[in-house]
């Protein structure tokens, strides 16, 4: 199986998604490499045993839990998919890959569309119950940490322009990985700052990302630095570091834990620590299954945390907080976690947000934190 390739020049690479608007498709933007990767028109789902070298990229997604019940998530996740068409933009050069039939993709303007919408933040009572269950388990020494989440339903007055949302996410979230996956008339998209695992030859890298404070725009250079010495947030962050290190230690050589730094996003500051090492024996998908979910998305101990989430969260996570990634023909690639994200179905946006609960957590403060995290999706609905 051999793909043809040709250089093209689209004024906006998101035109690719507009052209294939009725086909299954994915989009992945890597801010570290300034790379755009698109795929459209499903070719086949690949088994773990199949060779990936015949395909420019394989798109992979998993649901947070192994099974789902909510109909809106039906058919999403737990597949490794090859596509008939790919568009890759690297260093400003666009290359179109096609398997059989060449298509002429015309330049189409991707407009910034201002959606009219409404939502209600009327879930605080439910949040209190969820927080109490999590916090009591921690105070009773059953858990060290658990990540709980919210689902907020946003209703738009008319159709939703997903390319406009993606364009806003790119514009507003310079340090985040932007992604989308469209299937059967529904789209899951978001702007995540968190790498679960990256593999480049024998180099393996993961992020510990936990600990959050609101960015106030006072242009105070020391505003985010206070997060580095905050006891509650450093404790939450250290749980994530320790878990990732313990998981990676048995399979890596030269394991290194970098200095914890501040990651600056549009609305928030996060604590971020890079953990990396070397390994030649495990595939990228094996690494994903080993690490997911880290305590940044599930909790610690992981199994008890997942049991609590299943028992007390009223919504289904689906692809939220789950691994989403791309694998190249050499088996290298990157998986991020689907946070700061939403599922779009018809004129409804289901936006998701979560936070880590530890012994010093405060119910109202954590609720405010999740509301601030929801801004990533809410602000993408209009150009601000």
From TrEMBL:
Residues 125-373 form the Chorismate-utilising enzyme C-terminal domain. GO terms for biological process: salicylic acid biosynthetic process. It is an enzyme of class 5 (isomerase). Keywords: Isomerase. The keyword NADP does not apply. It comes from the Bacteria. InterPro entries: ADC_synthase, Chorismate_C, IsoChor_synthase. Its EC number is 5.4.4.2. It catalyses: chorismate = isochorismate. SUPFAM superfamilies: ADC synthase. GO terms for molecular function: isochorismate synthase activity. Belongs to the isochorismate synthase family. This is isochorismate synthase. It comes from Clostridium pasteurianum DSM 525 = ATCC 6013. The gene is menF.
